[in-house]
Amino acid sequence: MSMRWGWILLGGFLAELLVFAIVIPLSLVAGQASLLYSAPPASFVGSFVFGWWVARKAPGRAALHGTMVGVAAALIYVAISRAQPEPPAYIVAHVLKVLGGAAGGYMAARRGPAAGDTSTPRRNPAAG
Fold this sequence. Notes:
Layout: H1 5-30, H2 35-57, H3 62-80, H4 88-111
Helix pairs in contact: 1-2, 1-3, 2-3, 2-4, 3-4
């Protein structure tokens, strides 16, 4: 089965956009130092949401699709920042993006195909 690279890139972009939508308003209220505390959990949440979304659209390998959304989000941030040195909290945030995307993909795989999906349903190997 093929990878849905277009969806992965879109999911990574939207995940990164969600992170910015969460942390920028917080930093305006709580100050710039709050970015070190808000960016890591926001990174996990953003990648989880869009990793799950993309993985539900994937014909197979849902966890891999979700993980790649997290990788794409991290790479998008590195490109935006022009690969400048980052505080350790941002490096942790990148790791959490990958883990969040993987968790979202795993959740999508556990839940089965998306509603309205006309493709062949996924079999549960444990069911025999």
